[in-house]
Design brief:
233 residues; alpha+beta; Zincin-like; 2 domains; three-stranded mixed beta sheet; 7 helices; 34% helix; metalloendopeptidase activity; hydrolase; nucleus; metalloprotease
Length: 233
């Protein structure tokens, strides 16, 4: 009991320090070492953590390499706008993926199943943080999605997209997109690049997503879903 009380005290002190953004973010390498001992039973010795200035579509990402090594990458462009608490939660989210890989060889970083949720809830209870299965930084994501196209076909008249696709990279919608064939059959229009910013449209931010992040209709453009999804940078 004494050990649990002491551990809780240490965790609370650790989570409460450096919360003022003016003092800068805590060192992510120190966080990794601390969290490894507190929450992951010292199993993450093969995990490397680093900042990435190229990631603009996900707050964090865990990649797996041969030999059992994991690399946790954190988006500097997205996380620099957030609180230290959200940085901690993002790191712990990715470290759960790393832990499942190290201990169970679970390589599916996009799956948040029973084991992931078990450790997520366990760490939330211990730390008082609010780790979730999503990294929902909508405003920051939109800031980096500066390239905008609009279809000149019939879909431009229908919600929730009104024919818009916005991206962080300058790539025109085409056959490489999973929804392209459906769009070609149901609309057939061509996407024209917009020179102006995306206008305010009612319900555009919701984009018809369900709580699990899946679209409610097959004609919804995956690029527009305002969830931070884990993809390669």
């Amino acid at each position: 009991l004494l050990n649990k009380v002491l551990q809780k005290k240490i965790i609370n002190q650790f989570n409460s320090r450096d919360e003022d953004l003016a003092s800068g973010f805590p060192d992510i390498h120190e966080l990794l070492l601390e969290y490894n001992d507190l929450y992951f039973f010292g199993s993450l010795g093969s995990v490397i953590i680093r900042w990435s200035n190229r990631m603009t579509l996900c707050a964090g990402k865990c990649t797996y390499e041969t030999g059992g090594r994991c690399i946790v990458s954190l988006s500097e462009p997205l996380l620099k706008y957030r609180s230290v608490k959200e940085l901690r939660e993002t790191i712990l989210h990715e470290l759960i993926h790393a832990y499942l890989f190290v201990t169970s060889n679970d390589r599916d970083r996009n799956f948040h199943g029973k084991e992931f949720c078990f450790h997520m809830n366990r760490i939330n209870k211990m730390s008082g943080l609010n780790i979730t299965i999503y990294h929902n930084f909508h405003d920051e994501l939109n800031y980096y999605r500066r390239y905008i196209w609009r279809c000149d076909g019939v879909c431009r008249n229908h919600p929730p997209y009104y024919g818009y696709v916005r991206r962080s990279i300058n790539r025109k919608p085409g056959p490489a997109d999973s929804w392209w064939n459906f769009h070609r059959k149901t609309c057939g229009g061509c996407f024209v690049k917009e020179a102006k910013t995306l206008p305010q449209i009612n319900n555009l931010e919701s984009l018809g997503t369900r709580p699990n992040g899946q679209t409610s209709s097959p004609n919804m453009h995956q690029d527009d879903i305002l969830e931070i999804i884990e993809i390669s940078d």
